[in-house]
Every structure is written in C-alpha cells, then in structure tokens.
Write a structure and sequence with these properties.
Shape: flat
CATH class of the largest domain: Alpha Beta
Number of strands: 6
Distance between the termini: 96 Å
Order of helices and strands: HEEHHHHEHHEHEEH
Number of domains: 3
Oligomer: single chain
Structural class: alpha+beta
Radius of gyration: 27 Å
Strand order of the largest sheet: 4-3-6-5
Largest sheet: 4 strands, antiparallel
CATH architecture of the largest domain: Roll
Length: 272
C-alpha cells in the first residue's frame, strides 16, 4: 500500500514538473525598464560562440548600454527629432532593399563551373598574386583536451579526412577547416601564428590551448611566399568567390531593370 502511494506521489510530481517546464517562458537574462534580453536571443545572435563566456558577457554588456542610451535618447526628445526620422526612414529603405536583394540572390544562386573558374584564373592571374606570406593548413578546434589528443593520434596514423570522420558528430569537435589558405596577418590569436610559423610542410602540431576550453591542432600543408602566384587549386575558392561577386552585381542590375520595366516606373533626372 505504501509502495503504491509513494509511486503515485512520484508520478504526480514528475507530471507537474514536466508541465511546469513546458509552460516555462524563455529564460530572461537581463531586464532594462520594459526591455528584456532572453537566453534564446543571445544564443541566436552569437551562434557557435554562445557558450563562450567572454563573448556572452561582452554582448550582454553592449545590449544593456544600448538600451540605457536608447531610453535616454527618448527622454531628451531625440526620437521626435526630424533628423532622426529622416535617418530612420532612409535606414528602413536600405534595410528593406538589402533584404529583398538577399532573398532574390538566395533564390537565384549562381555556381560557376570548374572550367569557368579556371578560365577566369588564367585571364586574371595577376589579381591572385599573394600580397603577403600565406599558409595552406588543416585546422581543428576541440572543447576537450583529451579528445584533441585522441584526434591527433588518429591523424598521425591515418590522414586528416579519416581523423575528422572519426569525430563526426562528437560535440567535442567545435570546428574544423581543410585546405584553408590563410595569410600571415590573419593568424589570430598570437598562439596560432607561433604554432604555424614553427611547422614544416606536412608536420602536425601538438595540442595547444587557443582559448579557455578551446584546443587547437594544425597540420601545415604548404607555405607560400609574398609575391608568388599560387596554383589554381590553391586559390580556387577565392576565384569562385570573385566570379560570384561579379555575377551577383550583374544579376542585381538586371533585376532592377526588370522591375522598372514591369512596373512602368517613371524615373526623371534633373540637371543641377
């Protein structure tokens, strides 16, 4: 009898606890006046960095400052100022136009073929001369030192692709990039510069702590010197990006002209 009563109490408690969790609103982190900053908002804004304390603290502090200043702006009448209204209206138009363009480009994505990229590279090869020393690397970040050490052991015995596949889906693997071309001035934090600068092509670094709860492993594939022209395979991603930028400009220009024709928009230019 006592066992039944105890079981009933436990089940009832779990039921109400579940209901309470389901009904609980998003976790509030900060409240400034009537404005509330939620956990969900911070996580969405910071993306993959939402668990890193220094980024969270900086984001939250900036949000508090912005809310305090905004409320003071209202108290001083700035929100009713004509200049504020003009700037706000212009910003609305620019934001709306930018969102429309982004949507149109997402719906009309352009992917250059390999042959097109190679032809573009040959035609504009001088544009891809390295402005500084650069490195081609494989790099991986882990949130756990032991897992990073395990990864390095697998990497030494096999190759980068197999090592990454071995940790696919493991939460300890924070991020990774393969065949990444990085310039010397992009090597941040300083520890990353020290790691890569001391490696020989084909060499794998030991596990280093890049930041609190962030451990990095680097494999140096090749080093390229300033003023040299890298092979197409090294800069093919940059070539592709350049083609897409140029193509998008053309797409946007044609889209605007199409809208003008479809809606019979009258455009007058006045001489000064």
């Amino acid at each position: 009898m006592h066992l039944r009563i105890s079981l009933l109490i436990i089940l009832t408690g779990l039921f109400f606890l579940q209901c309470k969790e389901e009904e609980r609103p998003a976790k509030n982190l900060v409240k400034v006046g009537d404005s509330v900053l939620t956990e969900e908002y911070v996580n969405n804004a910071l993306g993959e960095f939402h668990n890193q304390a220094k980024y969270r603290d900086e984001f939250i502090n900036n949000w508090i400052e912005r809310e305090v200043l905004f409320k003071e702006a209202g108290n001083t009448g700035i929100l009713d100022d004509n200049n504020f209204s003009l700037i706000l209206n212009r910003s609305r138009k620019e934001l709306a136009a930018a969102m429309l363009i982004n949507k149109y480009l997402d719906d009309n994505k352009y992917e250059p073929a390999s042959e097109e990229s190679k032809k573009f590279y040959e035609q504009y090869k001088e544009d891809f001369i390295l402005p500084d020393d650069a490195y081609k690397i494989n790099i991986a970040y882990f949130g756990n030192k032991e897992k990073a050490i395990q990864f390095r052991s697998i990497l030494i015995e096999s190759d980068w692709k197999k090592a990454i596949n071995a940790f696919r889906g493991d939460g300890a693997l924070l991020s990774n990039e393969s065949d990444k071309l990085i310039y010397i001035y992009q090597l941040q934090p300083v520890i990353l510069y020290k790691i890569i600068n001391n490696l020989l092509p084909g060499e794998i670094s030991i596990v280093h702590q890049a930041e609190p709860m962030s451990f990095v492993i680097v494999e140096l594939i090749e080093k390229y010197y300033r003023g040299s022209t890298p092979a197409f395979e090294i800069v093919q991603d940059k070539v592709k990006d350049r083609i897409i930028v140029l193509k998008n400009k053309e797409v946007i220009r044609n889209y605007v002209n199409k809208l003008i024709d479809e809606h019979n928009i009258e455009i007058k230019r006045y001489n000064e």
